[in-house]
Amino acid sequence: MNNINSYRVFEQNEKEVKNERDYVLYWMQSTRRFHYNFALEYAVSWANKLNKPLLIYEAFSCQYRWATDRSHTFMMQGMKEHLDIAAKKDLNYISFCEREPGQIDEMFMNLSERASLVISDEYPIFIINKSNQKYSQKVDVSYITVDSNGIIPLGITDKDPYSAYFFRKTMQKQFVEAYTHPPRQNPLEDLENDNEIESLSGVVNQFPDGKKALEDIPTFINTLDINHSVQPIEWEGTRQAGLGMLGQFIQYGLMDYSEKRNDPDENKTSHLSPWLHFGKISPFEIVRAIFEHQPEGWSLDKITYNKGSTGGFFNGNPEIADFLDELITWREVGFHFAHHRPDYDKFESLPDWALKTMNEHRDDPREWTYSYQEFAEAKTHDELWNAAQRQLRQEGIIHNYLRMLWGKKVIEWTPDPETALEYLIDLNNTYAIDGRDPNSYSGIFWCFGRFDRAWQERPIFGKLRYMTSKSTRKKVKLSQYLDKYGDQKSLL
Ligand SMILES: Cc1cc2nc3c(=O)[nH]c(=O)nc-3n(C[C@H](O)[C@H](O)[C@H](O)COP(=O)(O)OP(=O)(O)OC[C@H]3O[C@@H](n4cnc5c(N)ncnc54)[C@H](O)[C@@H]3O)c2cc1C
């Protein structure tokens, strides 16, 4: 029926496909794009098989933990872009922003009553994972989720990878096979039955406010009971903006990536994490665009399995290899971990050595401790930490290298590691535009030892890897960064 690797397809219930019904329903939850989307491709193939039209339902919950004006605006900008495309192309597409809790549920259940089957996105964490579990039980037809998260299908691993090195071995073995089976660029082109689905207006008009929300995003958001203190950022949540960011990175950052990515003053990383998080851009299209910049004569044949070492695998440009190690190994290790570990966000999920060493140092005296509010307002004694937190508050991101320091210091300045973890998850997921992602948990839990190894023992940290602001200041270029976000320079 299609070429999608079975390791990407997850049957969520054992219910039947009802041929006599009106359409195939694709519920777009995390892979929010019409291109390079395995779930959409899979839904199209089902629609063709049953000779039915396809209904795409993209909705968005008004209330979820850490909901802010920032995350809502970014998401809704992407939905508005979809609404415009759908209108131009006459797609059967419903875009719905919930005003009151429960409306998404009602709308989805109503739509599912006319569906032959439901296809949705596989996503290992947070509300999407839970909603797939819940709705697959509530509907009376087959409910299938499809994984478009990364290059390496989630179903390939059979347990949680304990280190990046371990996962890199899997990645190296699977890369060529996975990469040469990409999602179709424009799956909707293959849809055979593009009849308009009749009498959907009854369902859609049920909540007229939600339908109108995208016409005036700020006004709609203002009426919601969410955290309004976290403001929208300058970047737009559209696919167009994400592709623009990719183009800029390839032009200005990629060839300096290895040398300059750690220097906050250089600004040479891709900044793609927000669009990756909201599913606006596919890792496949990023890798394809990046491969075009391999040296002449390079091809996939040059790739050699290298037992999990970082070098000597892609065997092309080293800058490209370094970038792809972040985009594939480091990004996807967290997705695979969460896929196998429902406790991915729990302190107890940390490796035994890390739990043991933190316990042994639980009562070590702390020179400084701060409340959540003091951290949130960047009121610590450390100018560099405060600068990183200010960048996070104002722009919704922290420079990659400083994000590690930012996380490590909270461990040092809280009464115990459990409190540190709770604060970090809340700070990250409230302010970061790319927060609430498997990568959020990889990054934060990495500070506590996940995917890492034991280092030399020290107070408070025990054997966890240790970082200091002093050595960071020596190691990376920061003067412009501190001019912009340092104490006195920036008003919160
Ligand atoms: C405490 C802490 C919290 C973090 N929270 C998040 C988060 O909420 N969301 C998030 O996407 N990332 C998070 N990270 C990982 C990393 O910092 C960001 O992915 C990266 O800074 C995003 O910037 P970029 O897109 O310019 O990265 P680039 O350097 O351009 O890398 C390209 C892509 O590779 C992936 N990547 C890069 N570095 C890492 C890494 N260390 N771990 C996992 N994936 C990586 C990201 O998808 C990124 O967009 C966190 C790291 C730490 C230490």
Automatic annotation (TrEMBL):
Domain Photolyase/cryptochrome alpha/beta, chain residue ranges per copy: 22-154
Protein name in the entry: Photolyase/cryptochrome alpha/beta domain-containing protein
Organism of derivation: Rhodohalobacter sulfatireducens
PROSITE patterns from the UniProt entry: PHR_CRY_ALPHA_BETA
InterPro entries for this protein: Crypto/Photolyase_FAD-like_sf (IPR036134), Crypto/Photolyase_N_sf (IPR036155), DNA_photolyase_N (IPR006050), Photolyase_Class-2 (IPR052219), Rossmann-like_a/b/a_fold (IPR014729)
The protein's required cofactors: (6R)-5,10-methylene-5,6,7,8-tetrahydrofolate
Coiled-coil region list: none
Lineage, top ranks: Bacteria, Pseudomonadati, Balneolota, Balneolia, Balneolales
Domain of life according to the entry: Bacteria
PANTHER family: DEOXYRIBODIPYRIMIDINE PHOTO-LYASE (PTHR10211:SF0), DEOXYRIBODIPYRIMIDINE PHOTOLYASE (PTHR10211)
